[in-house]
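#structure-requests
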Amino acid sequence: MSSSLKWRVIRDGPRTGPDNMALDHALAVCFRESRGVLRLYSWMEATVSLGRNEPARSLYDRSSAVEQEIEFVRRPTGGRAVLHSNEVTYAIVVPIRALGGPRASYIEINRGLAEGLSSIGAAVTVTDHGEVLSPDAGACFGVPAPGEIMVGEKKLVGSAQLRVGGALLQHGSIIIDGDQSVLNRLTGNLHDVVHPATLRSVLGVVHQDEVVFGIIEGLQHVLGGFWEEGQYLSEEREEADRLERHRYSQEEWTWRR
């Protein structure tokens, strides 16, 4: 169970969208039994990530995105579109049954995230209601799903999962500041504008390092096990390079639907 896992924490800097998605996917491909990985990172450019099966090809004004210096990438995981900008992004990889399976893992990981955010003063809750929506149901932060992290009635953290062989990947966005209205402007839908909760709206000035420290502490407390700082392994870097070249940097993948 989780108490026996050995955890490696990777604190990464800003990277491009294809690089970030390739690294998350590679950590899952190269997972090891009895090992967990927590990766915390940010984005070099404002980037819209699309869910694995989300329709997008004819929905976005790509020329407008170029003018606004907004990039696109398609995630390995499902779910709906997210604008990544001023946030902390997390990725967790564990053996598929280490935390009790996908659903139980989702709940436990979000409990850890919520505890970490509470420790820095954010009044968050983990919702026990919500909707499981189809991939074409709009922005990720528009409607919460059961088990997600909220501030009041607004979603603060958006997460998605993928099973890769014997590993489970869960990654998601913890919004520090900003909103998701760029998605509306790029799709021409100016009616259902999404305004997620932000850490700045509830805490005032908040620094990324403070969020990272709180997240690590909260996950350590909830998930247990032995934790240490680490770096990418050589096989993880090689797999990430391959995935970036052949999938995440390819227009055919990004605009596959």
